[in-house]
Amino acid sequence: DKGNHRHFMLKEIYEQPIVVAQTLRSYLRPLDGQVALPIPDFDFADIRRVTVVACGTSYYAGMVAKYWFERFARLPVEIDVASEYRYRDPVMEEGGLALFISQSGETADTLAALRHARAGGQKIAVVVNVPTSTMAREADLLLPTHAGPEIGVASTKAFTCQLAVLAALAANLARARGKLDPRQEREIVRHLEEAPAAINAALAYDEAIAVVAGQIAGARDVLYLGRGPDYPLALEGALKLKEISYIHAEGYAAGEMKHGPIALIDDHVPVIVLAPSGPLFEKTMSNMQEVQARGGKVVLISDYDGIQAAGEDCLATITMPKVHPLIAPIVYAIPVQLLAYHVAVLKGTDVDQPRNLAKSVTVE
Ligand code: M6R
C-alpha cells in the first residue's frame, strides 16, 4: 500500500525518520549513553581486521562504514563488491571478521561471498533487512535493520538504516578494542539520536529539490562529487539517478576530478557537489571551483554555513540542516534520493520498477 504517495519509492523515502529511529532503538541505550548490539556477548576483542562485502547501494553503505571502522575502532578494513571478492582469492587471516550487508539477504553474489568467507575461517557478521532471509540464517552475528519491507527497486530506507546499524557497530568495535572512552561513546550516541529529526528536516526541502530536478532533468550526463564519508554518497547519488531516470551519471571522489573526469565538464553537465561543512569542506570547495572555472553548472548540497560561504556561483543550492559529520551521510542520503526521484517522475519512467532491474538479484 502506497498510502498517500504516488510511488513506493516516495513512501519509503518519507518513512526514514521513523524506521531509522526504530532501528537505532535496538542499538542504542541513550540513558546510559551506550551502544548495545542485539547479541551483547559477541566477542570482538580479538578481531584484527574487517572485510566488508556487498553489492550496489548496500556496498556504498559499507564504504561509509569503512571510514567509521578505521576512525573509531582503528581497525584495518578491506572492502569489495561481492562479485569481485568471491573470485579473487582474497587473503583470509585468522581473527578476521567478514561483514556482509544486504537489504534482501538473498543477493546471489553476496551470499556466495559469505560462504566463501566462512570456508576461509572468517567470523560472519550480516547487516540485513529481511529477518527470515538466507543470510540472516547463516550469520554468526546478525545485525538486523528495521526498515520494514522495501518495495521500490531503488533502495532508500534500507540504506539509511544500514548506516545507522554500521555506526553503532563501529562504536561497539571501538569500545571492545579500548579505543573509545565513555565520554566519546556518549557523544556518538547523542549524534546518532539526532539523526531522525535531521532526516525530517531534510525532507522538508522536498519541494525545493523538485525544482532543482527540473533544472537537471534535461541533462545527458550528471556528475556527483563528495569527499571522505560523503564520497560513497556521491556514488549512491549517481546509482540512484541512473537506475530510475536512465540519465548517465557517475560519482567521483572530489579530489579525483583533476585526474581525468574534469575533461567532461562543460555547461551541459550538471555537477552535484555533496559538501556538509566540516573538516573536508574547504578541500571540496576548491574542487568545486575548478569545475566552475571550466563552465560546469554546480548544484551545491550543503548546510546554511556552507551555502553562505560558497553557494553564490552555483546553478542551484539545496540547504540541509547543520549536522555532526558522523550523521551527515545519513542525512545527505535524503536529497540524493529525492533528486533522483523527482527527475525520474519528470522523465515519466517507471519509478518503482525501472527497466532491466529486479528488486533482488538472486542470480549471478
Ligand atoms: O538486497 P541487497 O541489498 O543485497 O541488494 C544489493 C543491490 O542489488 C541493490 O542495492 C541495488 O543496487 C539497488 N537497486 C540500488 O538502489
UniProtKB/TrEMBL annotation:
<comment type="subunit">
    <text>Homodimer.</text>
</comment>
<keyword id="KW-0963">Cytoplasm</keyword>
<keyword id="KW-0315">Glutamine amidotransferase</keyword>
<dbReference type="GO" id="GO:0004360">
    <property type="term" value="F:glutamine-fructose-6-phosphate transaminase (isomerizing) activity"/>
</dbReference>
<feature type="active site" description="For Fru-6P isomerization activity">
    <location>
        <position position="359"/>
    </location>
</feature>
<protein>
    <recommendedName>
        <fullName>Glutamine--fructose-6-phosphate aminotransferase [isomerizing]</fullName>
        <ecNumber>2.6.1.16</ecNumber>
    </recommendedName>
</protein>
<keyword id="KW-0032">Aminotransferase</keyword>
<feature type="domain" description="SIS">
    <location>
        <begin position="212"/>
        <end position="354"/>
    </location>
</feature>
<keyword id="KW-0677">Repeat</keyword>
<keyword id="KW-0808">Transferase</keyword>
<feature type="domain" description="SIS">
    <location>
        <begin position="40"/>
        <end position="179"/>
    </location>
</feature>
<comment type="function">
    <text>Catalyzes the first step in hexosamine metabolism, converting fructose-6P into glucosamine-6P using glutamine as a nitrogen source.</text>
</comment>
